[in-house]
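Pasting as-is:
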Amino acid sequence: MTQGRGRASYRSKVLLCLVSTSLCVLTMEIVYRVTSPERAFFAATELANFRLNPQNLTQFFEIDPSFGFRPILGNGLYRDDGTRVNAYSLETPPDTTRLLFLGDSVTARGHIVDAIRDLYGENHYEYWNAGVESFNTVQEVNYYRRYNTAVAADHVILTFHLNDFGTTPIAFVNRDGAIVVFAPNRPLREISPWLFRYSYTYRYAVSLMSKTAMDRTGVMEEVRASLADLRGMLDQSGTKLTVLILPTLLPLKAWSADDRERRAVIRRFLGELDITYVDLWDPLSQALSDGVAVTEPEGDIWHPSPDVAAYFARYVRHTGVIDTVQNLGHRR
């Protein structure tokens, strides 16, 4: 009898523990769902510009698990091949080199692309812009694979921003009809997007695992793998690849330790992968020395102005990376 009562007492304690835990989890879920629906603890960073944008971004972007989100194609802003609308045909004229620019909002807004066009003209070059607001390198490479290969470029020019170390985001449309985007602090393959969207307990649990140095290392290695993947695809098609490293738009002494590390890491990765790159720090430094307003808008350290973009383009021409590409015409 004593043994039976002991087992009953143990079962009662286990049941009480389960009920208490369930009530705690339920309370946590309700409290955060009501008070802080966008809280991710330390598991991710919200890209709040999507949710708080005064425009209805569902007119321009859609949820896509392969990228988290992507532009709606064929809507007047982007073509079906994933590039910004232009007047070019997929059939390239003879003696024409097709340049395809990959990147985030810096590329999408076109100042660097336009500055390069101003220098090289349009007699022998085409300029295709596949930049997407808030994309990172992992998204850009997947986007190229699915859509941009149709462009059959002779030269792919990827602009790598120092904030482009990231993994595929978690994105969804919330009950208010706004797009919500979270940038996870660890590779997405280690996270359940469905649980992350619906469970704050899960977000908290992921955040506990995210307080390790391996998170940063894992994300950076995923970026390296994406760059290697892109180079492999382009090698197979005989397409040249150049990466433009876009520095933080501040004097070097104002850079954070994180900025410096990221620049060193991307230069190391590109060197290891034998990918041609142009570090745009030197022309930025010259523009700052000349008193040029380097940001647009003022105070935005991520988006270069047309004036500093002209410095970048002249530096790119000085390196000769575009001049070395001739129209191959072997894929068309």
